[in-house]
C-alpha cells in the first residue's frame, strides 16, 4: 500500500498541543515607561556558571547603576544552522538561564545589562559548557520493532523534558523518506505505533527533536510488519464468572459480538453494585491482540452507562479462575490467572463541548465506535474481561453495544 498521502498527517489539536508544549522559550516582554536617564549601565560582574544538560545557569552581580531593567543573554545554540537565542532576566534576579544548545561543547554567551531607557552596557562574554542535551540522550534509547500492520516506536525520557519522536517512512520507489507520524510528549516513555501496512519489509527511520528545533541522528531500520486480522466473532462465547456484574433488562453479553450496533447490547442492572462493572467472555482462540473497537450506546452519547474509564484484563489459561478486579491497577498487573492488558479513557467530544452538550458531529463521531490499542507488551489471551470503573454519568451500571477485536491468531 502506498502511504505517501499520510505524510505530515497531524491534527490541529495535536499541533495546538505541540505549540503549548514547546512554548516555554517565549521571551518575557519588559514594557515599562521610558526613562530619561541615558546613563550607560555598568557591566555585570562576579559571573559564575553552572552547566546542565543542554544549558547552563549563569549567576552574576548586578551593576550598581540604579536604572537597570534587565540582563540579556545572547548566544548561538547551533553552530551548523547558526540559530541563536536571546533570554532575559529582570533586575529582581541575579541568575539567567541559557538553554537549547544542540551539542555538548563550549559556547559563548554575551551578557549585557539594559537600562529603563533601553541603553545597553558593554558586553561581558561568558563561556558555558552544557552537558549532553536531553534530546540526544533520549535518541540513544530509540527502539523500533515490528507491530501489527506496522511499526512500534519507543523512547525513554526519564528526564521528563519535552521532546518529539519523529517516524519517517520511505515507500518502495520513493526517492527519500518523509514524515509519517509525530509524537510529542514530556512523559517518561514515548510509545506509539503506526499501522496500515502489509507484511512486506518496510523502510522506517526515527529521530528525536526538541522545542528548539535540534534534531538527533536518524536511526534507520527495515521492518516486516506483523500479520493482523479481525478475530472471528462467531467463536466468541459468554464465560460468566462469580464476580461479574449481573446483566439486566433482558439484555445479553453475547450481544457484544452479534454484529449489530443498534437494538440491544450488554447492559448491567441499575443497582448500587461495587466497581468495576465487569463482564467476561472467551475469544475461542488464543491470540496476540493488537487493538479493539468498542461501540457505545446510541442515544446516550457521552452519558448514562456508556464506559468512560475502563480496563481490559486477559488470560491465556484454558479455564481461568475468578478474581475480584480492582478499580485500578497498573498495566501488566497479574491477579491470579488474569493480567491487566490495558487501561483506557474514552475521549470526550471532539468539538470540545461539555459531554452534556455534545454537538451532532460529536454524537456522530461517538457512534462510529472508538478504537483502542493493546500495549505491544501485552501477552496472548483467549479470555477477556471488560472492567468499567467509571461511566459517563458516574452511575454504578454500564452498557456497550459491540466490540471488535484484532490481533494475530497464528
Rounded Rg:
28 Å
CATH fold field value of the largest domain:
Jelly Rolls
How does the helix and strand content classify structurally? mainly beta
Backbone shape: elongated
Q: What is the string of SSEs from the N terminus onward?
A: HEEEEEEEHEEEEEEEEEEEEEEHEEEE
End-to-end CA span = 23 Å
How much β-strand is present in the residues? 35-45%
Q: Roughly what is the average pLDDT, rounded to an integer?
A: 91
- Number of helices, counting only DSSP H or I runs of 4 residues or more: 3
Poorly predicted sequence stretches spanning 5 or more consecutive residues:
1-28
Describe this structure in words.
By secondary structure, this protein is mainly beta. It folds into three domains: 111 residues, Immunoglobulin-like (Sandwich); 84 residues, Immunoglobulin-like (Sandwich), CATH 2.60.40; 179 residues, Jelly Rolls, CATH 2.60.120. Helices cover 6% and strands 41% of the residues. Strands 15, 16, 18, 19, 20, 21, 22, 23 and 25 form a nine-stranded antiparallel beta sheet that branches. The chain has a four-stranded antiparallel beta sheet with strand order 4-3-6-7, with no helix packed on it. The protein has a four-stranded antiparallel beta sheet with strand order 11-10-13-14. The longest helix is centred in the first third of the chain and has 10 residues. The protein is elongated and about 85 Å long. It holds the Pfam family DUF4959. This is DUF4959 domain-containing protein. It comes from Chitinophaga eiseniae. InterPro entries: DUF4959, DUF5000, DUF5126, Galactose-bd-like_sf.
